[in-house]
Amino acid sequence: MNKRLPSFHLLLAFEAVGRRLSFKQAAEELFLTPPAMTYRIKELEQYLGFSLFLRSGKKIEFTPAGQSYFKTVHQVVSDLKRGTDRVLRDFSVRKLRINVLPFMASELIIPQLEGFRQAHPDLHLQIDTDSDVVDFQWGDVDVAVRFGDGKWPGLIAEKLLDVEVSPVCSPQFAKQQSLTHVADLKGQTLINFDNSSGGWSDWCKQLGVNLGKPPQEINFNNYVYVLRAAEQSSGIALGVFPLINFWLEAGRLVRPIVQSITMPKSYYLVYREEDKERQDILAFRDWLVSILPQ
């Protein structure tokens, strides 16, 4: 019977290509070159005696045989990964793998992490800060903080925080520019967060205001830098409340314009349905809720 089983490295290559329908992305996932990935698929096709994919330029799709075989291989690989994760979790050093947005990590979690560590001295933490949405099936993660609508199939999403957005700047900048009304924002330098959906355009659209084209815009891909630039009087940024309440309480920023918009999305704690009774995840959830600003 073993003679009829292809090599496992060929099956892994097929599963990755079939899941992504991309040789390039599958190669990157398995740390292979695209030619090496193509060779493995050809080797598997030769072993089986039929084609698995139809190729048209850069686009690929399953053959009927490939689609049928993928269902079996994908299920086996998924079961093996889940089983491996389970035995490692149950019989190795306890580790909680957390994926959290960079701003929340640096400004909220890390400053108060010692309290959680002392309460759980036997728990090893792996904290990854990445703005990209993590894949719970294939990513190295147990629990994540996501910003969205709370609808992620196959995952439990517990709402952490609703947010609203309003302009913020340094106290000195607000005084120098006499910022008290929305009209005062015209002609000011706007500071943008590249990863935000809409940003200033959404704020203006929802409030029905037109600021025109600003004389200058500054863009950052890290929200901490957005606030730091505003703190240094480089312009006006959009503050996300209540996440940045402590920046105002410390006098680092002010909220010169009272108008704000409520975001349609919220922050959620997300984890697998099968992990709903994991005590380390529940402990992290309770601790995180306790440190979030209200």
Task: Jot down its keywords.
single chain, 294 residues, alpha/beta, Arc Repressor Mutant, subunit A, D-Maltodextrin-Binding Protein, domain 2, 3 domains, two-stranded antiparallel ribbon
As for the number of domains, it is 3
Order of helices and strands: HHHEEHEHEEEHEHEHEHEH
> Kindly state the mean pLDDT as a whole number?
89
Query: Can you say what the CATH homologous superfamily of the largest domain is?
Result: Periplasmic binding protein-like II
Number of strands: 10
> Strand-residue fraction?
15-25%
Q: Looking at CATH, which topology of the largest domain would you report?
A: D-Maltodextrin-Binding Protein, domain 2
- Radius of gyration, in angstroms, nearest whole number: 25 Å
Oligomer: single chain
| Main beta sheet | 6 strands, mixed
- The CATH class of the largest domain is identified as Alpha Beta
Write out the strand line-up for the largest beta sheet, numbering strands in chain order: 4-3-5-10-6-9
Q: In CATH terms, what is the architecture of the largest domain?
A: 3-Layer(aba) Sandwich
The first-to-last residue Cα distance is 62 Å
What is the helical fraction, as a range of percent? 40-55%
Give the structural class: alpha/beta
| Number of helices, where a helix is a run of at least 4 consecutive DSSP H or I residues | 10
Shape: globular
Taking pLDDT < 50 over at least 5 consecutive residues as the criterion, the unreliable ranges are none
